[in-house]
Input
Amino acid sequence: MKTFLKGFCIGLLCMSLLGLLWFLVIQPGLTNKEAQDLKEEYAQPLPGEPSGELPAGKEQAASLVNLSALQAEYPDIKGWISIPGTRVDYPVLQSSADEPEYYLRRTYKGEHRTAGSIFFQWDCFPESKNLVVYGHNMSDGTMFAVLQKMADEAFRKEHPQILLQTSDGLQEYRIAAVLKTDIQKLPFNRTEFADDADFLSFQEELFAQSLYKPETILGADRRLLTLVTCSYEWESARTVVVAAEVR
Output
C-alpha cells in the first residue's frame, strides 16, 4: 500500500510539473511562433520598396503585413505592433463592448491560450487620441513582458521605438513615459476627450506620474499609444508605457 501511495504521489507530482511546463513555457512559446508564422505568411513590402527595405528611422522593423488579407481571414485583427530589438512583434486583436477581454486568454483563431493575444481596448479606433493596448506579462519574456524593462533608462534608450500598423498605415511612436500605477490611481485608459485642453490635462497627469521626467509635454496634436501589462508591486499594479506619435 505504501509503495502504491508513493508511486501515486510521484505520478501526481510529475503530472503537475508537466502541466506547469505546458502553461508557463510551451504555450507562450507556441503563441510566439504562431505570430511569427502568421507574419511570414502575410508579409508585404512597403509600397515603393519592392526589396522590403524600410525608410530611415524604421530599419529595424520587419516587413509590413497585408492587413486587409489578414482581416479577411481574421476580422478581429485590427493591427500589428512591433518594438524593434525585442520579442514584441504581434497581431493586435479587438473585441466588442460585450466581451472586452475576449482575447485575454484566446489566440487570433479564438483558441484558448494562457498567453492570450495583444489586444486593443474595445473603444479604441485608429483616429483615437489615446490608443490603449493590453498584453500579458509572460514569465518566458513573450507578449508584453518587455514593458517591465522600460523602467531601466539604458534599456529604454536602446529600444525607444514602437511601430504600429493599422488600417491608417504604419505609424512610428517614441516612448515618452513609463508608469507603475493602476486604474484606480490614474485613468490611463481614457480614449475620449472633451477638447484639446482636456487632452493636454490628461497628458500632464500621465507624465507627472512617470518613473522618469519626460523631456516635454507633447501637445494636443500628438496622439498617444499606451501599452499596459500586469505588474506585481501591489494587487492591481500595472506597468504602463506611454509612447508619442512621431511626425
